[in-house]
Amino acid sequence: GFQAAPGAPWPYPKVWKNSTTVYSLNSEVFQMTGNMMHCGIMSEAVQRYLKLVFFEKNVRVDRRVKQIKSLHIFVEDEICHDLPDENMKESYNLAVSESSTLKAKSIWGALRGLETFSQLVYTDSDNTYYINKTDIIDEPRFGYRGLMLDTARCHVIQ
Hints:
It is a single chain. By secondary structure, the protein is α/β, with parallel strands linked by helices. The protein has helices spanning about 40-55, 105-120; strands spanning about 15-25, 30-35, 65-70, 70-75, 90-95, 100-105, 120-125, 130-140. Helix 1 packs parallel to helix 2 (about 105-120). Pfam families: Glycohydro_20b2. Keywords: Hydrolase.
């Protein structure tokens, strides 16, 4: 494998349309809103991802480019599932523009979209946050997630 470039998601989503249009983000103004903020999983994830996205403390705001002030998260299935299940739809659509939106079928799809959004944000040498105009449509490659056990490493060599 290789490391993704700044502002690029990894692994690559199913559909990724990236643009050269750049927006700035201001950590003091930017907020994430949505219809599932009453769900503990979503509200905790939003707080966690805001800290991940805005990891630097002393940042500058580039006033030469337009600023994104919010990401609106809309979850179609309004049930607050504690854990994903085998029938859950984890697909999402992420549109980064002046009015950015993340639309997901389930709360767990929204979490996948938040992870992708956090990977799209990058900083320059002046500690300014940027994100490119982007449209992403993504879903898990396989319908069922599994677990792999590495049984070859269970023996101690003396």
